[in-house]
């Protein structure tokens, strides 16, 4: 599985927030007006879109994305997607990779909130992204307001064409009832609303991968820094979904063998907020939550008794020594009242 490469031109919301339109996380394309040439489900694939020369199916050229037929009537094509979790949307990527003479000239996104159900003909929709112009074979990044909670979106193509990928970056609603059997909840999980505030380096893999559910599918599905050639260590800062007490920590180096960190540690504190730059400066002096621990390749490391006493915290600094790759970080605990 080839996971998305780091796009240096991508805006901050793609690195900080989780893609709630990711099929791997549970998003689903429910219904479309037309997907004659390419199935609607493909546009929710987390892998980068590919092009296969000479590959055809019974309807024509095989394309990696959602593609409708050429419209010969009035109106436009659309697709309704159930998001992986209800949440507020902060940014969109409408990706037309490999669609050149068959991309839609314009598109828009609408949202609705139907907790525990699906939209009907009577469901009211509101604008998430007004109509915007699109080009062929490129990413289109748009910041979104993030004011209203969405459970579903409706993507409109004007009038027809192909969309390789739909990515909607947002903050999921926190569900305090979604606890594990031991009464703990992963306060760092992206699907609970945990986010990466800052990191000093993510040359080979995004730090946001640390907060995804499940184990990494390969070495590209994790946070990996470049080889450090100077003193010091690499780090990232996690904003928890809710203030809480950390009771159990998991550091998973799945798939990282010749490039896993030698050691790791955690620092944590409770802060009301601040800019990423101010938090980076403060984080150097935060109290230790988990003292340095030796790591091994390609395995899950669990810590509980090693966690130092602390009050409820909002932010955690994850230190790796000196550099390397980590697949997942779990910070399981009890939300503060």
UniProtKB/TrEMBL annotation:
<comment type="pathway">
    <text>Nitrogen metabolism; (S)-allantoin degradation; (S)-ureidoglycolate from allantoate (aminidohydrolase route): step 1/1.</text>
</comment>
<keyword id="KW-0378">Hydrolase</keyword>
<protein>
    <recommendedName>
        <fullName>Probable allantoicase</fullName>
        <ecNumber>3.5.3.4</ecNumber>
    </recommendedName>
</protein>
<dbReference type="InterPro" id="IPR005164">
    <property type="entry name" value="Allantoicase"/>
</dbReference>
<feature type="domain" description="Allantoicase">
    <location>
        <begin position="193"/>
        <end position="333"/>
    </location>
</feature>
<dbReference type="GO" id="GO:0004037">
    <property type="term" value="F:allantoicase activity"/>
</dbReference>
<comment type="similarity">
    <text>Belongs to the allantoicase family.</text>
</comment>
<dbReference type="InterPro" id="IPR008979">
    <property type="entry name" value="Galactose-bd-like_sf"/>
</dbReference>
<feature type="domain" description="Allantoicase">
    <location>
        <begin position="26"/>
        <end position="172"/>
    </location>
</feature>
<dbReference type="Pfam" id="PF03561">
    <property type="entry name" value="Allantoicase"/>
</dbReference>
<keyword id="KW-0659">Purine metabolism</keyword>
<dbReference type="InterPro" id="IPR015908">
    <property type="entry name" value="Allantoicase_dom"/>
</dbReference>
